[in-house]
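User: Can you help me understand a structure? I only have the sequence.
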Amino acid sequence: MPALALIRHACRALWRHKVRSALNALGIAIGVAAVVWVVSIGETASARTLQQLDALGDNLVWIEAGSRNVNGVRSGSYGMRNLTLGDADAIASELPLIRRVSPNIDGTVLVIHEVQNWTTQFRGVSPDYLEIKRWTVTRGEIFNDEDVQRSTDVCVIGQTVKERLFGDADAVGSDVRIGMHPFRVVGELAPKGQSATGQDQDDTIWFPYTTAMKKIRGGGQTWLDDILCSAESPESVAPAAAAITALLRQRHRIASDQDDDFNVRHPEELLQAQLRASQTLEALLGSVAAVSLVVGGIGIMNVMLASVVERTREIGVRLAVGAPGWVIRAQFLVEAVLLTTFGSACGVAVSAAGTSALQSALGWPVTMDPIALFAGVGCAVATGVVFGYLPARRAASLEPIEALRAS
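Assistant: Let's start by predicting it. Here is the structure, written out as tokens:
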């Protein structure tokens, strides 16, 4: 039997039971759409987690002062004044796993420009802080090592500070004042938005750390609030943190039975755990979506088996006039494939509409993954072939005489 004749005959057979065929096609459509949605949402969640991981910094290792237990009382973060510039220099010079180091001093200051003023968070850092925390400068430039050595009166401001003090005007080259001390703005930071905790990262002003120690914090301060480091690679973050811990314990003369007087953090671990959890959830939901395809395939098998019973006399006539068994099998397999193909096409349309709805509901840039789309359609067609084979084989194995006797 020619292929076109098989398709034509299968279409007529499916059309005779329009409602039943439509319901089974709907089951396949839902299965295909479920596969596409699950993969799209999972990939979007993974991408957002990777974006947050990237925003944390360049293989960030963060050393924070504090946390020592003294006479049963544990100091919290910034509870001790034991981190020094010597610690930062030792980390940079003695640990090959560390690529960049920036001392850090932070706090809150009132910044004034002409008649405008704004209270913001300040940071005293080195030029390497820009790379460690993956910031960029949109106008001007970051201060340099010479500015650090000379404690130059320069600063770099975030977009929130720029908008509050300068509006739409260019801030680079202008002066701001903290107390009675003027500072020249040498750069504007690119917008970075809110952090994962909801903090406005653009509400900041940076100085060379020597300038912050002498002219912002004052009082002869010689200690640091933090030391921020960038490891050589993601794989070296954990060993670099362990090496920093060993080095600082040695420098601070901490006995083996004493607690650290600092905290070493590498927050990538948290987001890596979130990423693994989202991937696990994606695999779990993908399995559920695959089950829906199997359920749709079982529905197709039931339809085909019912069709074999209803068309027993027709099958008997075909066999009696010499139709080979493979033609009968092909006829029912074509019907199953047509049903799954139609359902898959509907699933693609539902996927497109549903993806737009998910994007509006979640507020995420959810897009259809072409691989997931092809995989969903391919699985659906394969399901139709697999579950259509049993009815097709049963039809082809009927005895012509017994089939003709069927009422």
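Now, to help you interpret it: The CA atoms of residues 42 and 280 lie 9 Å apart. The first helix runs from residue 3 to 16. Let me know which part you'd like to focus on.
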